[in-house]
Design a protein that fits this description.
This is Beta-glucosidase/6-phospho-beta-glucosidase/beta-galactosidase. This protein is an alpha/beta fold and 481 residues long. The chain has helices spanning 15-18, 64-78, 89-92, 103-118, 134-140, 147-162, 184-187, 207-234, 256-278, 285-292, 302-308, 357-371, 397-416, 464-474, and strands at residues 8-12, 44-46, 82-86, 122-126, 169-171, 196-198, 239-251, 313-324, 332-334, 339-341, 347-348, 354-355, 375-379, 420-423, 446-448, 460-462. Bound molecules: 6-O-phosphono-beta-D-glucopyranose (BG6).
Length: 481
Amino acid sequence: MSFPKEFFWGGATAANQFEGGWNEDGKGDSVCDHMTGGTVDKHRYFTNEIKSDTHYPSHEAIDFYHRYKEDIALFAEMGFRMFRMSINWTRIFPNGDDEVPNQKGIDFYRSVFEECKKYGIEPLVTISHYELPYNLMKKYDGWLNRKCIDFYIRYCNTLFTEYKDLVKYWLTFNEINCLTMSIGDILSGGFKCEDGPAQVMGLPDTKEQVAKRYQALHHQFIASAKAVKLGHEINPEFKIGCMIAGGCIYPYSCNPDDVLLAQKEMRMNYFCGDVQVRGEYPHFTKRMFEDLDISILEEEGDRDILKSGKVDFYSLSYYMSTCSTVDENTLKTSGNVVMGVKNPYLKSSDWGWQIDPKGLRYLLNELYGRYQIPIMVVENGLGAIDKVESDGSIHDSYRIDYLRDHINQMKEAINDGVELVGFTPWGCIDLVSISTGEMKKRYGFIYVDKDNEGKGTLNRLRKDSFYWYKKVISSNGEELD
Ligand code: BG6
């Protein structure tokens, strides 16, 4: 057995990291537009006022806004069958609470989807990928305010109605589980904050802050369930999925305390999926909230809403695994959203993310066993520094190795019986790193000439991995060398 014939090979992006055109054609500013580039210590900064002398990477990003035809043609040349992108909420509703959508924003995405259609590429659209309107942060404290549900549903209603014949696959929130961690305070929660280090730091883990996170998350669960229900009413053919930052956590040893700790941490990986797939909070929630000493406010009818909006498929990002132990004298390692204990059996990327293809097979089996609905891996890849040779070639064999190993493990998972239906590796075209704001941390098959300071021609170049992935797709995952 191998990849199913109709397997969705493709690539993934997000508006805030690749679109640019941040204030063009009526677009409002989103929370991400207030985040500066990376600095020496790799932190990005959040500023409430947008300063004219500061570099904000999302403002131009890689200018997909003006180059989408060229970029989609390159994706088509590789043979993409699916293209994951997000819609910038503020291009449709500039302030988030507007009554009427921005026509130019609607037109832009229609052109993008039509361009995909021309090549037979199926769009996979993330409705919210760190692009909350800044106005909702400032005026309402973001997702802490229940009103955000209505604003989000109005936005979804516009998208579903406008694009019902162009888009079939949707994701309600990117990495919704990030909202349980400080890393999600600004980008996912849109909580009001002072100017200061963003992304890596988030806001302090006080009891009040933790309670805010789970309250905001509850609002996102309700919003997601309502969106699923609404989408199915508008077009019963729609397939609407959840998107979870997938981590794999191993016990560091067979000490039962390590095993229990790993189980507890893995539950944080399952928590959001459990709610969105099963339509109810999992059995461990009560104890979890008691241990955290928090409670959340629910309205009458919320439980029914969750039940009425179960997702059609499960999607995840997967970059790395970590270990858990009660032993405090172990080496630590970090990643995009997780901190954990270093695994001596694994190598790491230049940014310290532990590379573990087998962890993906393990996780896919666990998820499928738990939910038994189709799964897509909608992010995976290696952030690395690329060198352009004098003839314009880029020899990124490290990226090919990384992806080959992960594809092989996905194949194993399919043979294990997992219903895996798509793979869209992250940053199929180089884009801005979310955690560091850098350009030099590249994931793409397509190189974009732009540096950390925002300088460059923005020209696109094909890397070695471009030709390799094209072969992978045309052979449906059989030719991996
Ligand atoms: C995921 C996010 O967590 O990781 C993406 O959904 C992000 O937005 C990706 O870009 C890779 O992380 P980074 O920090 O290398 O850009």
